[in-house]
Amino acid sequence: MRKSRYVSATISIVFSVLLVSSFSTVVRAQGLFTQGDFWLYDQSAVYGSASVSGIMNVSYTGMSNRTVDGTAYVTYELQYNTSLMWSGTASGTTRSLETVYVDQSSENTVVDEYNESDDITFTSGGTISTVNGWTYNETVYNPPGGSGTWPSSVQVGDTWTITYTVNYTEVTFDGTSTNITMGSLVEPTTYTVTGTESVSVPAGTFDCTVIQISSPEYSYTRWYSDKVGNDVKITSGSGLNDSSTIVLRAYSYGATSNSQVSVLYVGIGAAIAAAAVIVVVLLVMRRKRAKPADLQQPVTPGRPPETPPYY
């Protein structure tokens, strides 16, 4: 997960991790994605007496070349564009743009780049605090995909663990000073297929595979649909006063029954996960260090696509 000096940053980090594990897609003869693919999500979260709501637009923007440790990769580019509004004991906005680069041949996340800006005022016990700053984080998976793989055919009751090793560089500005942090993170993440379920969201009703994901720092549940090529719903949290939910509002996905080759569960984006984790750090205004986004999370929403890491 990315390291952060303030609450919003923490959210971003967690998100990356979730994305890495929450994005699942269908491999097509012409490629994993097609131009025009997008997934629009509604996000909501509660943390104590503060809440946040907004949207996240996940889109495929094309192909690019990335080189990591001397190895060249041809990658798919996925962008996660998020806009959030705070209410309750917090007011203001959080905006982020995350780009996840997924290796075309292995479908593993190679690099996750994250930008976030915050303008938030917190009120607690008569004390008012303000966060007005930004965070930039680059997380590199080495090797892409981590140690371990998704089963070739996922069945109810299956469980497996993947260990993600990431190197990150993060630059933060808290309104007064700039801080640069570099480091590495080894994160074991366990996946369990708990069942199948029909889920109704604003985008429609879909038959989904239910997958629970957990690591030493976070846990969440995702509902993945082959038809959608991504998650339909993601939830995390411990109750009404600490919870986050992401649901699919609209989507455009190029897969058809004639072009599907196989379903691979890999990490694609940390964005979705980040949204789920956002709330957790909300009132922790102290300069708390968060791990870099769990990219597969750093990209672990996996075919289900990888999602950016959350922490």
Counting copies of identical and different chains, the oligomeric state is single chain
- Give, in order, the helices and strands: HEEEEEEEEEEEEEEH
Average the pLDDT over all residues and give the rounded result. 75
Helix content: under 10%
For the biggest β-sheet, the strand order reads 2-3-4-5-6-7-8-9-10-11-12-13
Separation of the first and last Cα atoms: 6 Å
Our count of domains comes out at 1
Structural class: mainly beta
Unreliable spans are: 1-30, 256-311
Strand content: over 45%
Number of strands: 14
Q: What global shape is seen? A: globular
User: Count of DSSP helices?
Assistant: 2
Largest sheet: 12 strands, antiparallel, barrel
Gyration radius, to the nearest Å? 18 Å
Structural features, described:
By secondary structure, this protein is mainly beta. The chain has one domain (7-281). Helix 1 (7-22) crosses helix 2 (271-278). The strands form two sheets. It has a twelve-stranded antiparallel β-barrel with strand order 2-3-4-5-6-7-8-9-10-11-12-13. Strands 1-14 form a two-stranded antiparallel ribbon. A hairpin with a 2-residue loop joins strand 12 and strand 13 (242-252). The N and C termini lie close together (6 Å). Helix content is 8%, strand content 58%.
